[in-house]
Design goal:
Elements: E1 2-10, E2 13-17, E3 25-28, H1 34-46, E4 54-60, H2 63-99, H3 104-111, H4 115-127
Parallel strand pairs: 1-4
Antiparallel strand pairs: 1-2, 2-3
Helix pairs in contact: 2-4, 3-4
Length: 128
């Protein structure tokens, strides 16, 4: 069962309501506790096993902080994409340079990485 847990900070706790299930209100000290709390409470109210609850968390918080959080999430996603692309290109370059007869030590010097990393990248290309 797909539900949305709406959380609002109330002192040291998060007050949570779930509009899809009549009467489902709960609270938690931490955001990461909310999905389990909602699933457990949902099971008590509906007889649907807790494991069958798919909980989406939506929390009300300071709008400026929410914008900053979203910006950081976008930056982290972009950074991960850049890391993935750098890894892909590194594997391709290592493969190409190995095909040209260069040693892992030579490639390591050229790329500024250890010979062990060159070997790893070469193996990754072979299995990719």
């Amino acid at each position: 069962m797909k539900v949305t847990a709406h959380a609002v900070r109330s002192g040291d706790w998060w007050s949570v309501d779930v509009p899809e299930v009549d009467g489902l209100f709960t609270q938690a000290r931490r955001l990461d506790q909310i999905p389990a709390m909602v699933a457990y409470a949902g099971e008590l109210l509906t007889d649907i096993p807790a494991a069958e609850f798919e909980v989406t968390l939506d929390y009300d918080f300071d709008p400026a902080a929410r914008r900053e959080i979203e910006e950081v999430k976008q930056l982290n996603a972009a950074a991960q994409r850049a890391v993935d692309e750098a890894s892909r290109q590194s594997r391709a370059v290592v493969h190409d340079l190995r095909q040209r007869g260069l040693s892992v030590r030579e490639i390591g010097v050229m790329l500024g990485i250890t010979p062990s990393r060159v070997s790893q990248l070469g193996k990754d290309k072979a299995t990719a």
